[in-house]
Design brief:
Length: 293
């Protein structure tokens, strides 16, 4: 049983990652090292979120009463998230943002940016400083979903019947892959990543301990023989335990049989032979009823 479990945390975080497009002397283009560009935390949790786990198209062929199905594996997870950015100002670290400012941050600094392929790279030293592409990591610590996603649609709405200055949103995303590995400069993202790694750390530790034990046993004949003897004794003790359980069941069966025999004798002895029409018949057959003493 795993000892290091990931807790449910009330954090939903987007991490925009920038990949600079590097052009060498021969004109060949390649992606440079990823850089963490922007981290957006939803200060107000979503009101609803839906994960659609589906399979790829399958082909089913029927042969009389039998059929054959070709499976194509799992399709990318589709994510539908709805909520509001709130209205009142909330503090995050040293900054304070209203709901409208949080809405503009998500729209302008996250969605619009990650869909762009022509962002100028003034803060990255490149030969041409021309282009880059973006990836997006998504962390839903409420439902324990994290990975690279692509925002397919961002719908912003407002309803005067609810609040004239309340921005509501609907986000449609597609889960693409595992998290993009990048050096994080954000404390919260670093903490979340360390939390996600807890089960793998425990698994690696168990493997190292088991390998260490195996190495000791394989390289020492005395310990190997001792370990084998311990396993034999454990097996025999388990067998003896099964025998003891069987004996206990047998004792319980005998005790129940004695109780039933006593109740039967009491019942027969308490019958009124003169008034009961069956008295004579029971009296004649009483001596033939086996009594266990």
């Amino acid at each position: 049983m795993a000892l290091l479990k990931i807790p449910q945390l009330n954090y939903v975080v987007f991490e925009a990652i920038k990949f600079p497009i590097v052009t060498d002397d021969k004109g060949n283009e390649s992606l440079g090292e990823p850089v963490q560009d922007k981290v957006v935390v939803l200060d107000r949790l979503f009101t609803s979120i839906k994960y659609s786990h589906t399979a790829l198209n399958t082909n089913t062929k029927f042969f009389g009463d039998s059929y054959l199905t070709d499976k194509g594996g799992l399709a990318p997870v589709r994510i539908e998230m709805k909520g509001t950015f709130g209205y009142y100002a909330l503090r995050r670290g040293t900054s304070v943002r209203t709901g409208f400012e949080r809405f503009k941050e998500f729209r302008d600094e996250l969605f619009n940016k990650v869909q762009s392929i022509s962002e100028s790279l003034e803060d990255v030293t490149l030969a041409d400083k021309s282009r880059c592409i973006y990836g997006l990591n998504f962390y839903d610590m409420v439902n324990h979903f994290w990975g690279e996603v692509d925002i397919k649609e961002f719908l912003a709405t407002s309803d005067a019947n609810i609040h004239t200055k309340l921005q509501m949103y609907e986000v449609s995303m597609l889960g693409l892959n595992k998290l993009i590995a990048v050096q994080s400069q954000d404390f919260l993202v670093t903490l979340i990543r360390k939390t996600i790694e807890l089960p793998s750390i425990e698994e690696d530790l168990e493997k190292h301990i088991q390998n260490y034990i195996d190495d000791i046993l394989n390289n020492n004949e005395d310990l190997k023989n001792l370990w084998k003897s311990v396993q034999d004794i454990k097996s025999k003790l388990s067998f003896l335990g099964d025998i003891k359980t069987g004996i206990d069941y047998a004792k319980q069966f005998i005790d129940q049989s004695k109780i039933m025999d006593a109740n039967l004798n009491s019942l027969i002895g308490g019958l009124s032979w003169s008034s009961n029409p069956l008295g004579s018949l029971i009296s004649e057959g009483k001596n033939f009823i086996p009594i266990l003493n």
